[in-house]
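Quick check before the chapter quiz. The format below is the same one you will see on the exam, so make sure you can read both the input and the output lines.
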Amino acid sequence: MRFNLSALAVRERAVTLFFILLLMAAGAYAFLKLGRAEDPSFTIKTLTVTAAWPGATAREMQDLVAEPLEKRLQELAWYDRVETTARPGYAYMTVTLKDTTPPSAVQDEFYQARKKLGDEAGNLPPGVYGPFVDDEYADVSFALYALKAEDMPMRQLVRQAEIVRQDLLHVPGVEKINILGERPERIFVEFSHDRLATLGIPAQAIIAALQRQNTLTPAGSIETRGPQVFIRIDGAYDGVQTIADTPIVAGGRVLKLSDIARIRRGYEDPPGYLIRHDGKPAIMLAAVMKQGWNGLDLGQALEEKTAAIAGGLPLGMTLGMTLDKVTDQAVNITSAVDEFMLKFAMALGVVLLVSLLSLGWRVGIVVAAAIPLTLAVVFLIMLETGRFFDRITLGALILALGLLVDDAIIAIEVMVVKMEEGMDRIRAAAYAWSHTAAPMLSGTLVTIAGFLPVGFAPSTAGEYAGNIFWVVGFALIVSWIVAVVFTPYLGVKLLPAIRPVEGGHHAIYDTPNYRRLRRFIALAVRHKFLTCGIVVIAFVLAGMGMGGVKQQFFPTSDRPEVLVEVRLPEGSSIETTTGAVRKLEHWLDGQPEARIVTSYIGQGAPRFFLAMSPELPDPAFAKIVVLTPDAEARDALKHRLRAAVAQGLAPEAYVRATQFVFGPPSVFPVEFRIMGPDPATLYSLSEQVLAVMRGIPEVREANRDWGNRTPVLRFVPDQDRLNLIGLSPAEVSQQLQLLLSGITVTELREDIRNVAVVARSAGGERLDPTRLADFSLTSRDGRQIPLDQIGHAEIRLEEPILKRRDRIPVITVRSEIDEATQPPEVSKQVMTALQPLIATLPPGYRIEMGGSIEEAGKANAALVTIFPVMIAATLIIIMLQVRSFPMLAMVMLTAPLGLVGVVPALLAFNQPFGFNAILGLIGLAGILMRNTLILTEQIKENRAAGLDAYHAVIEATVQRARPVILTALAAVLAFIPLTHSVFWGSMAYTLIGGTACGTLLILLFLPALYAVWFRIRPT
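Here is the expected output.
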């Protein structure tokens, strides 16, 4: 006796019912325990490297510091590129691993990078600090809090931030708390150059006195029979007053330092990074969540903790005034999950309604019961495999809803038909296993195989969207088990008494509706060549129509933030940048949509959204993040800000208003890299590229990332005179550094901070370039030498910034686009327009496309690498089921038929064809092949039952039409709620159009194709 799982489930009813109740309870528990997240995490395969060399030009930083480090980084096994930005005194490198790097290999590659850079550090020029490696660049700030107090000095506010940080670290789920925007404290010793010259005190004497007084050295210890007694020498600096009392010897007299210099507390000047919240200076605390933690639980815990912290803050400081929540992922998670839960409930209701209305309420209940049973098991699997409810998994569940009733509908349809033929319900339930279980399983596996590329694509985009494959796969496998185990049991228990239909099998399919369908199918088979020809023509037209569909990578996000980038000319000071930011803040203060305005000056905002890339330090850059109530308010504010900028708001800066985009980050939607050895030639080429881009109507605000030179004041010493005086160029540089910017001479050790003591000349002198010639240097024998006697100053032009990619100089020309268009189509237009220029490029120069089209190319290429596996798996599954090459070919030929419905749907609803739509189209092929597979198996059964080939084809199509149409209808209606999703919209329209049209074509095309292939004639 052959094993029959359906018969076993019906026979052991108590056990079956027990497992139904157990799985429902376990599923409910899993649903409540599953974590919630806004988006799935993906591995950011990037680290940053920083090196400093005070006094070096950008060219020296590039050639002498960055160059050797870049060479070592190129030795990494998964190396993709290193992008280097060199500025005077600094070099910043962003190292990116290949998109195909396995996530498990990333940390080891980061370790190797750190090791190689550490080995190379000893070979860098003397005086270079670093390289400093940040391999936590990918940290995502779950919540940001702004701590501010107008009447409190910044140094005290930082101490308060440390207390708050310590409290927040005890919140379960918090991995770390970063303090951002702290302006390092300084104690300035400011002296008048003229006064020192009058008193005959060299500046070096002040430096030496400060260093001698504050040196921390051991004074020994005494061994006793009891404790060891350490000897401590008082005299180290413990405050500003002790620094002011430092004795200075001048002309045989002992003076206090305060007699000849001004000692005051201050802060890093110029500042490196400033944060402003709602127009006021602030310290930012960034909470990073532990891996795998429930975001909603952490959000609730942080709310409770910050409320408790508020009660313990010093007098006059309340939560609403000083500790403001800037952003909180828990709010976005709640919004995103609630929205998708609503759409999920709508899709669930639609599928239940289709089942009840089309099959009758008792039959419909049996089919509908498969949905909560399947979902309960899927929730349990998700919980055990560490998956969350997020944008991808919830969307995948909605996609699965339209597919997971297929097997239940087929099983119950067979059961009802057999009962109408006179079979008792027990045997009818067992019949579903023996005749439909295998083709249903093969069809399920074929559908799952269609999603293989997204599940295993070796790319960041594949990692981001990979759970589509896993969740849909879990759901479909479980739905098959439910259909062959629990659905027969429920059918036996719940189906009404179905009386046999007179006339048996023939009479069941001889109703008026079936007769009309039969005539229609017979017409298609009799005109089989015409039918196949029409389908082929429709397919070709759909392929041609794809040229009219907009292309896209990932859609823009529906998050409510407006991102305002402020870029000033390279070389601009951070004070100038702050001035431009203040103008924008003042304008935003009057806008009703702007709820929270936070400015980050000197570098980008911390990564509080996974798909963003924080900008590296740059005094000429600022980012303002404006939180609005919703996406509509965001768009209104964004367009109004653009109009204000066009009318002259902050004219000294390039101001860009934009928003977040889903998927891997890309700074501008359209980017072109001009690469070659000579920066001057690159600059000339960039001018030509800019001219071409500005001539394309869809391009907006074309610009380049660098290329302009800035003036530099160079002092050219007379080497002969220097030798006579006894000074070296290095000593001249050190003395000028002291007089102008100042040098750190010692540190004040103050509780948990070391405060640098900086000696420099007074502000009026050091800030006036015309006073440079009035400065005097000190020779080694103490003589004062006027600077203009040992050389002269001249103005020269110098690059304030140099950029390279893979050790090749590069200028990136980029732009915004008309929002009615998509980045790929604009990029292609620009590339077409650039072809005459590209054809005339000098040897060694090239122009490459960057931006979102480059990222899309990587993601699509990663999908293509899995296509052979997908095709092989599909062929194996189909061949094991049909065991015939002709049948295998016919099943495969129906795979692309969905395109006939996809293209009209995308064009009709103005939807782009992007990464998500590609995934939908791939999955659609599996759905259509599943229907074809089940239909061909019915033809085989009919022929085995004695029908001639012609009638076997016609009757098989008639018999399978009802479940095929019902499953297609359930799928199409289940996908409708997703059409309103920004992220899933294009995929939903792809599946709706493809499923509806593809199903109808299969019911007509497959019988005609079968008749053509096997030369079947009407009988």
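If your answer matched, good. Confidence is low (pLDDT under 50) at residues 315-321.
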